[in-house]
Amino acid sequence: MRLSTTSAAARFFLLAVPLLLGALTLPARAQEYPTHAIRIIVPYAPGGQGDITARLVAEGLRTRLPQTVVVENRPGANGTIGTAQVAQAAPDGHTLLLVVASHVLTKALMPNVTFDPVKSFVPITMTARTPVVMVVSPTLPVKTLAEFVAYARSKPGELVYASAGSGSNVHVFAQWFNQLAKLNMIHVPYKGSAAAHSDLIAGRAHMVFDTLPSVQGHVAQGNLKLVAVGGTTRLPQYPDVPTIAESGYPEFEAASWGVVLAPAGTPKPIVDKLNREIVAVLRSPEVKERFASFGSEVVANSPAEMLTILQAEERRASALVRELGIEIGQ
Protein backbone atom coordinates (compact mmCIF):
# COMPACT_ATOMS: atom_id res chain seq x y z
CA MET A 1 0.00 0.00 0.00
CA ARG A 2 2.89 2.31 0.84
CA LEU A 3 4.47 1.54 -2.54
CA SER A 4 1.21 2.40 -4.29
CA THR A 5 0.90 5.68 -2.38
CA THR A 6 4.50 6.57 -3.16
CA SER A 7 3.98 5.71 -6.81
CA ALA A 8 0.84 7.88 -6.98
CA ALA A 9 2.69 10.75 -5.36
CA ALA A 10 5.51 10.39 -7.85
CA ARG A 11 3.10 10.44 -10.76
CA PHE A 12 1.40 13.55 -9.35
CA PHE A 13 4.79 15.22 -8.96
CA LEU A 14 5.75 14.44 -12.54
CA LEU A 15 2.47 15.89 -13.79
CA ALA A 16 2.56 18.96 -11.57
CA VAL A 17 6.14 20.05 -12.25
CA PRO A 18 5.57 21.11 -15.90
CA LEU A 19 2.48 23.08 -14.87
CA LEU A 20 4.35 24.81 -12.07
CA LEU A 21 7.28 25.59 -14.33
CA GLY A 22 4.90 26.95 -16.97
CA ALA A 23 3.24 29.22 -14.42
CA LEU A 24 6.63 30.45 -13.22
CA THR A 25 7.75 31.30 -16.76
CA LEU A 26 4.81 33.71 -17.35
CA PRO A 27 6.31 36.53 -15.25
CA ALA A 28 9.70 35.82 -16.84
CA ARG A 29 8.15 36.15 -20.32
CA ALA A 30 6.59 39.45 -19.29
CA GLN A 31 10.00 40.68 -18.10
CA GLU A 32 11.57 39.73 -21.46
CA TYR A 33 8.66 41.16 -23.50
CA PRO A 34 8.87 42.58 -26.09
CA THR A 35 11.44 40.46 -27.88
CA HIS A 36 10.87 42.00 -31.32
CA ALA A 37 8.94 44.80 -33.03
CA ILE A 38 5.35 45.54 -31.95
CA ARG A 39 2.76 46.20 -34.64
CA ILE A 40 -0.35 48.27 -33.96
CA ILE A 41 -2.88 47.43 -36.66
CA VAL A 42 -5.40 50.16 -37.50
CA PRO A 43 -8.22 48.65 -39.62
CA TYR A 44 -9.17 52.03 -41.11
CA ALA A 45 -7.80 54.46 -43.68
CA PRO A 46 -5.05 56.91 -42.64
CA GLY A 47 -6.06 60.28 -41.24
CA GLY A 48 -9.03 59.26 -39.11
CA GLN A 49 -9.36 59.29 -35.35
CA GLY A 50 -8.16 55.68 -34.95
CA ASP A 51 -5.06 56.35 -37.04
CA ILE A 52 -4.22 59.57 -35.17
CA THR A 53 -4.60 57.82 -31.81
CA ALA A 54 -2.50 54.80 -32.81
CA ARG A 55 0.36 57.02 -33.92
CA LEU A 56 0.30 58.98 -30.65
CA VAL A 57 0.42 55.71 -28.68
CA ALA A 58 3.18 54.25 -30.86
CA GLU A 59 5.30 57.38 -30.57
CA GLY A 60 5.07 57.26 -26.79
CA LEU A 61 5.80 53.54 -26.56
CA ARG A 62 8.97 53.89 -28.62
CA THR A 63 10.54 55.87 -25.78
CA ARG A 64 9.43 53.37 -23.13
CA LEU A 65 10.08 49.96 -24.71
CA PRO A 66 13.31 48.47 -26.08
CA GLN A 67 11.75 47.49 -29.42
CA THR A 68 10.37 49.29 -32.45
CA VAL A 69 6.63 50.08 -32.46
CA VAL A 70 5.05 50.53 -35.89
CA VAL A 71 1.54 51.43 -37.04
CA GLU A 72 0.05 49.58 -40.02
CA ASN A 73 -3.19 50.65 -41.69
CA ARG A 74 -5.22 47.67 -42.94
CA PRO A 75 -8.53 49.22 -44.08
CA GLY A 76 -11.35 47.43 -45.82
CA ALA A 77 -14.71 45.73 -45.29
CA ASN A 78 -15.80 48.16 -42.60
CA GLY A 79 -12.70 47.48 -40.52
CA THR A 80 -13.06 43.70 -40.50
CA ILE A 81 -10.02 42.85 -42.66
CA GLY A 82 -7.41 44.25 -40.28
CA THR A 83 -9.40 43.18 -37.22
CA ALA A 84 -9.61 39.57 -38.43
CA GLN A 85 -5.84 39.50 -38.97
CA VAL A 86 -5.20 40.50 -35.36
CA ALA A 87 -7.76 38.00 -34.06
CA GLN A 88 -5.73 35.26 -35.76
CA ALA A 89 -2.31 36.58 -34.71
CA ALA A 90 -0.09 34.95 -32.10
CA PRO A 91 -1.23 35.98 -28.59
CA ASP A 92 2.22 37.15 -27.53
CA GLY A 93 1.69 40.91 -27.30
CA HIS A 94 3.59 41.74 -30.49
CA THR A 95 0.48 42.36 -32.61
CA LEU A 96 -2.07 44.82 -31.25
CA LEU A 97 -5.25 46.37 -32.62
CA LEU A 98 -6.57 49.90 -32.23
CA VAL A 99 -10.27 50.25 -33.01
CA VAL A 100 -12.95 52.88 -32.51
CA ALA A 101 -16.53 52.57 -31.28
CA SER A 102 -17.83 51.08 -34.55
CA HIS A 103 -15.97 47.88 -33.59
CA VAL A 104 -18.88 46.83 -31.36
CA LEU A 105 -21.31 47.00 -34.32
CA THR A 106 -19.54 44.23 -36.23
CA LYS A 107 -21.45 41.21 -35.03
CA ALA A 108 -24.87 42.85 -35.41
CA LEU A 109 -24.11 43.97 -38.96
CA MET A 110 -22.11 40.94 -40.15
CA PRO A 111 -23.17 37.82 -38.23
CA ASN A 112 -20.88 35.59 -40.32
CA VAL A 113 -17.67 37.50 -39.60
CA THR A 114 -14.81 35.22 -38.52
CA PHE A 115 -14.20 36.88 -35.15
CA ASP A 116 -16.19 38.04 -32.13
CA PRO A 117 -15.61 41.74 -31.36
CA VAL A 118 -15.44 40.99 -27.62
CA LYS A 119 -14.50 37.33 -27.13
CA SER A 120 -11.74 37.22 -29.76
CA PHE A 121 -9.70 39.89 -27.96
CA VAL A 122 -8.44 40.96 -24.57
CA PRO A 123 -8.71 44.70 -23.91
CA ILE A 124 -5.64 46.68 -22.89
CA THR A 125 -7.16 50.11 -22.27
CA MET A 126 -9.52 52.74 -23.64
CA THR A 127 -7.46 55.56 -25.08
CA ALA A 128 -9.89 58.50 -25.10
CA ARG A 129 -13.48 59.54 -25.61
CA THR A 130 -14.06 61.82 -28.57
CA PRO A 131 -17.09 64.05 -29.22
CA VAL A 132 -19.26 63.34 -32.24
CA VAL A 133 -20.87 66.35 -33.89
CA MET A 134 -23.31 67.08 -36.70
CA VAL A 135 -22.05 69.33 -39.48
CA VAL A 136 -23.87 70.48 -42.60
CA SER A 137 -22.84 71.85 -45.96
CA PRO A 138 -22.16 75.61 -46.11
CA THR A 139 -24.37 75.72 -49.22
CA LEU A 140 -27.51 75.12 -47.11
CA PRO A 141 -29.52 78.16 -45.95
CA VAL A 142 -29.43 77.03 -42.31
CA LYS A 143 -27.45 77.95 -39.19
CA THR A 144 -29.05 75.84 -36.45
CA LEU A 145 -30.26 72.29 -35.93
CA ALA A 146 -33.89 73.40 -35.91
CA GLU A 147 -33.42 75.20 -39.21
CA PHE A 148 -31.75 72.15 -40.74
CA VAL A 149 -34.58 69.85 -39.63
CA ALA A 150 -37.19 72.22 -41.08
CA TYR A 151 -35.26 72.52 -44.35
CA ALA A 152 -34.76 68.74 -44.67
CA ARG A 153 -38.45 68.10 -44.00
CA SER A 154 -39.31 70.54 -46.80
CA LYS A 155 -37.24 68.48 -49.26
CA PRO A 156 -38.05 64.81 -48.59
CA GLY A 157 -35.83 62.39 -50.49
CA GLU A 158 -33.65 65.18 -51.90
CA LEU A 159 -30.89 65.70 -49.33
CA VAL A 160 -27.90 63.39 -48.85
CA TYR A 161 -26.31 62.39 -45.57
CA ALA A 162 -22.78 61.07 -45.81
CA SER A 163 -21.01 58.52 -43.63
CA ALA A 164 -17.56 57.00 -43.19
CA GLY A 165 -18.96 53.76 -44.62
CA SER A 166 -22.03 51.59 -44.57
CA GLY A 167 -22.42 50.21 -41.05
CA SER A 168 -19.97 52.67 -39.46
CA ASN A 169 -20.93 54.18 -36.14
CA VAL A 170 -21.55 57.57 -37.75
CA HIS A 171 -23.91 55.89 -40.23
CA VAL A 172 -25.85 54.47 -37.30
CA PHE A 173 -25.90 57.85 -35.53
CA ALA A 174 -27.21 59.63 -38.63
CA GLN A 175 -29.87 57.00 -39.31
CA TRP A 176 -30.95 57.16 -35.66
CA PHE A 177 -31.27 60.94 -35.78
CA ASN A 178 -33.19 60.80 -39.08
CA GLN A 179 -35.67 58.42 -37.49
CA LEU A 180 -36.11 60.59 -34.40
CA ALA A 181 -36.47 63.79 -36.43
CA LYS A 182 -38.67 62.08 -39.04
CA LEU A 183 -36.38 63.01 -41.93
CA ASN A 184 -36.26 61.34 -45.34
CA MET A 185 -32.64 61.61 -46.52
CA ILE A 186 -30.49 59.53 -48.88
CA HIS A 187 -27.46 57.73 -47.41
CA VAL A 188 -24.19 57.86 -49.37
CA PRO A 189 -21.31 55.93 -47.77
CA TYR A 190 -17.71 57.03 -48.39
CA LYS A 191 -14.38 55.30 -47.89
CA GLY A 192 -13.60 57.08 -44.64
CA SER A 193 -14.95 60.33 -43.28
CA ALA A 194 -12.27 62.53 -44.87
CA ALA A 195 -13.44 61.44 -48.33
CA ALA A 196 -16.93 62.86 -47.64
CA HIS A 197 -15.77 66.33 -46.67
CA SER A 198 -15.08 67.62 -50.19
CA ASP A 199 -18.60 66.67 -51.30
CA LEU A 200 -20.08 68.36 -48.23
CA ILE A 201 -18.12 71.52 -48.88
CA ALA A 202 -19.25 71.52 -52.52
CA GLY A 203 -22.88 70.82 -51.63
CA ARG A 204 -23.10 67.39 -53.25
CA ALA A 205 -23.75 65.99 -49.76
CA HIS A 206 -25.58 67.90 -47.07
CA MET A 207 -25.04 66.46 -43.59
CA VAL A 208 -22.70 64.15 -41.73
CA PHE A 209 -22.02 62.98 -38.20
CA ASP A 210 -18.29 62.89 -37.54
CA THR A 211 -15.76 63.16 -34.74
CA LEU A 212 -14.81 66.70 -33.80
CA PRO A 213 -11.10 66.28 -34.71
CA SER A 214 -12.04 65.21 -38.24
CA VAL A 215 -14.11 68.33 -38.98
CA GLN A 216 -12.70 70.97 -36.65
CA GLY A 217 -10.36 72.45 -39.26
CA HIS A 218 -13.17 72.79 -41.81
CA VAL A 219 -15.45 74.36 -39.19
CA ALA A 220 -12.77 76.88 -38.20
CA GLN A 221 -12.29 77.85 -41.85
CA GLY A 222 -16.02 78.19 -42.46
CA ASN A 223 -16.09 75.28 -44.91
CA LEU A 224 -18.60 73.32 -42.80
CA LYS A 225 -21.31 74.48 -40.38
CA LEU A 226 -21.37 72.92 -36.89
CA VAL A 227 -25.03 72.77 -35.87
CA ALA A 228 -25.19 70.25 -33.00
CA VAL A 229 -23.19 68.16 -30.53
CA GLY A 230 -23.94 64.45 -30.23
CA GLY A 231 -22.91 64.02 -26.59
CA THR A 232 -24.81 64.92 -23.45
CA THR A 233 -22.92 68.16 -22.73
CA ARG A 234 -21.91 71.16 -24.81
CA LEU A 235 -18.30 71.50 -25.89
CA PRO A 236 -16.12 74.14 -24.21
CA GLN A 237 -14.77 75.12 -27.64
CA TYR A 238 -18.31 75.79 -28.90
CA PRO A 239 -20.45 76.78 -25.90
CA ASP A 240 -23.20 78.24 -28.10
CA VAL A 241 -23.75 75.02 -30.06
CA PRO A 242 -26.47 72.93 -28.35
CA THR A 243 -26.56 69.18 -27.92
CA ILE A 244 -29.05 67.14 -29.89
CA ALA A 245 -30.49 65.86 -26.60
CA GLU A 246 -31.32 69.37 -25.39
CA SER A 247 -32.75 70.30 -28.80
CA GLY A 248 -35.78 68.07 -28.52
CA TYR A 249 -34.31 64.57 -28.87
CA PRO A 250 -33.46 63.62 -25.27
CA GLU A 251 -32.76 59.94 -26.00
CA PHE A 252 -30.04 60.70 -28.54
CA GLU A 253 -26.39 60.28 -27.53
CA ALA A 254 -23.44 59.86 -29.89
CA ALA A 255 -19.78 59.65 -28.97
CA SER A 256 -16.73 57.79 -30.15
CA TRP A 257 -13.81 56.22 -28.33
CA GLY A 258 -10.66 54.27 -29.05
CA VAL A 259 -9.46 51.04 -27.48
CA VAL A 260 -6.26 49.00 -27.73
CA LEU A 261 -6.88 45.24 -28.00
CA ALA A 262 -4.68 42.15 -28.10
CA PRO A 263 -5.58 38.67 -29.40
CA ALA A 264 -7.48 36.49 -26.93
CA GLY A 265 -5.13 34.28 -24.93
CA THR A 266 -2.43 36.92 -24.49
CA PRO A 267 -0.85 36.15 -21.07
CA LYS A 268 -2.03 38.39 -18.26
CA PRO A 269 1.49 39.56 -17.28
CA ILE A 270 1.97 40.87 -20.84
CA VAL A 271 -1.49 42.47 -20.84
CA ASP A 272 -0.72 44.15 -17.53
CA LYS A 273 2.65 45.40 -18.79
CA LEU A 274 1.07 46.81 -21.95
CA ASN A 275 -1.60 48.49 -19.85
CA ARG A 276 1.00 50.13 -17.59
CA GLU A 277 3.06 51.40 -20.50
CA ILE A 278 0.17 52.64 -22.65
CA VAL A 279 -1.59 54.26 -19.68
CA ALA A 280 1.67 56.07 -18.86
CA VAL A 281 1.84 57.35 -22.46
CA LEU A 282 -1.78 58.49 -22.42
CA ARG A 283 -1.42 60.27 -19.10
CA SER A 284 1.71 62.16 -20.09
CA PRO A 285 1.04 65.93 -20.19
CA GLU A 286 1.94 66.30 -23.85
CA VAL A 287 -0.39 63.49 -25.00
CA LYS A 288 -3.26 64.68 -22.79
CA GLU A 289 -2.78 68.18 -24.19
CA ARG A 290 -2.80 66.83 -27.75
CA PHE A 291 -6.06 64.96 -27.17
CA ALA A 292 -7.60 67.98 -25.45
CA SER A 293 -6.69 70.17 -28.44
CA PHE A 294 -9.19 68.28 -30.57
CA GLY A 295 -11.82 67.87 -27.89
CA SER A 296 -10.98 64.36 -26.68
CA GLU A 297 -10.66 63.27 -23.07
CA VAL A 298 -8.06 60.66 -22.10
CA VAL A 299 -9.55 57.66 -20.25
CA ALA A 300 -6.63 55.21 -19.71
CA ASN A 301 -8.58 52.60 -17.73
CA SER A 302 -7.81 49.02 -16.68
CA PRO A 303 -8.35 45.88 -18.81
CA ALA A 304 -11.18 44.76 -16.50
CA GLU A 305 -12.95 48.12 -16.72
CA MET A 306 -12.57 48.15 -20.50
CA LEU A 307 -14.01 44.64 -20.81
CA THR A 308 -17.14 45.74 -18.94
CA ILE A 309 -17.51 48.73 -21.26
CA LEU A 310 -17.01 46.62 -24.40
CA GLN A 311 -19.67 44.16 -23.32
CA ALA A 312 -22.18 46.89 -22.48
CA GLU A 313 -21.46 48.87 -25.67
CA GLU A 314 -21.91 45.80 -27.85
CA ARG A 315 -25.32 45.07 -26.28
CA ARG A 316 -26.40 48.70 -26.77
CA ALA A 317 -25.11 48.91 -30.35
CA SER A 318 -26.65 45.60 -31.39
CA ALA A 319 -30.05 46.63 -30.05
CA LEU A 320 -29.85 49.95 -31.92
CA VAL A 321 -28.88 48.28 -35.20
CA ARG A 322 -31.82 45.90 -34.90
CA GLU A 323 -34.20 48.74 -34.02
CA LEU A 324 -33.12 50.81 -37.01
CA GLY A 325 -33.02 47.84 -39.38
CA ILE A 326 -29.57 48.78 -40.64
CA GLU A 327 -27.79 46.36 -42.96
CA ILE A 328 -24.45 46.61 -44.74
CA GLY A 329 -25.02 48.17 -48.14
CA GLN A 330 -27.80 50.55 -47.09
TrEMBL record:
InterPro entries: BUG (IPR005064), Bug_dom1 (IPR042100). The keyword Signal applies. SUPFAM superfamilies: Periplasmic binding protein-like II. CDD domains: PBP2_Bug27 (cd13578). Residues 1-30 form the signal peptide. The keyword Electron transport does not apply. Keywords: Signal. Belongs to the UPF0065 (bug) family. This is Tripartite tricarboxylate transporter substrate binding protein. It comes from Rhodoplanes tepidamans.
